[in-house]
């Protein structure tokens, strides 16, 4: 229905394709999606292989996360208090990175969580991580790429939008598809106003949301995971031969070829 309505609005052809992340079958392509990872695929898999299926939460708030250090410290403490294994990506260049690194070092955060937590500084091989059987939840900023990647592997999410379309994407995940739990963020993290905005999510809220998503014994959590799994299967069928994405790519190629033929005839 949405596609048909969109065609009417723009009064033109529409080809819906994706999730494109599923088109990368090669492990190296997955590992280098978007950039060269700052940690080897082997190190990630070695950590994940130590843990049970669906027992690890993956935390990544995007390449341009602008949360202040005190907020990220709340995130760290919330993760620690869950007692759940985690992989946490801290991208280089984010606001107050050095302050956070100093806190992690001074508080022996990594040592305290040795074997249970893995911190990746820089770019992470996200699809390699999300595709691993040990991953049971994804704390995300709801960027469109990350949202689709989470859906394409059937992982339920904890949502923490920061700005732009991320708040709309969160509603899709939590209210329409019902495969995520919101942290309740309602304030846009506007650039230049981070210190003024301050801490918007406390560690207790972070802990509760993660535990909610990761609790396999809870009926609501189980149903959420089942919905995520069904969407994963739908996404896989879409990119397979005969699927909607496959068909649309074929139609797009045919349309381009037809346009080229018409142009040659006219010239």
TrEMBL record:
Coiled coil: none annotated. PROSITE patterns: UDPGT (PS00375). It holds the Pfam family UDPGT. InterPro entries: UDP_glucos_trans, UDP_glycos_trans_CS. GO terms for molecular function: UDP-glucosyltransferase activity. Keywords: Glycosyltransferase, Transferase. Belongs to the UDP-glycosyltransferase family. This is Uncharacterized protein. It comes from Pisum sativum (Garden pea). The lineage of its organism: Eukaryota, Viridiplantae, Streptophyta, Embryophyta, Tracheophyta.
């Amino acid at each position: 229905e949405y596609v048909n309505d969109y065609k009417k609005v723009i009064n033109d052809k529409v080809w819906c394709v994706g999730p494109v992340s599923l088109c990368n079958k090669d492990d190296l392509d997955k590992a280098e999606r978007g950039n060269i990872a700052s940690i080897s695929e082997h190190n990630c898999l070695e950590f994940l292989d130590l843990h049970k299926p669906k027992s690890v939460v993956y935390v990544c708030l995007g390449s341009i996360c602008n949360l202040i250090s005190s907020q990220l410290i709340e995130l760290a403490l919330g993760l620690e208090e869950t007692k759940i294994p985690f992989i946490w990506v801290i991208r280089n260049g984010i606001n107050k990175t050095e302050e956070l690194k100093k806190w992690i070092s001074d508080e022996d955060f990594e040592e305290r969580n040795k074997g249970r937590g893995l911190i990746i500084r820089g770019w992470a091989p996200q699809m390699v991580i999300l595709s691993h059987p040990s991953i049971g939840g994804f704390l995300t900023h709801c960027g469109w790429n990350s949202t689709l990647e989470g859906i394409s592997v059937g992982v339920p999410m904890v949502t923490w939008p920061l700005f732009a379309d991320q708040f709309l994407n969160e509603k899709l995940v939590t209210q329409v598809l019902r495969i995520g739990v919101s942290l309740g963020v309602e304030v846009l993290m506007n650039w230049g106003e981070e210190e003024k905005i301050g801490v918007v999510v406390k560690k207790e809220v972070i802990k509760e949301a993660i535990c909610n998503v990761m609790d396999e014994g809870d009926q609501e959590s189980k149903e959420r995971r089942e919905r995520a799994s069904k969407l994963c299967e739908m996404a896989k069928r879409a990119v397979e031969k005969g699927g909607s994405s496959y068909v649309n790519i074929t139609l797009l190629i045919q349309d381009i070829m037809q346009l080229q033929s018409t142009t040659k005839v006219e010239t």
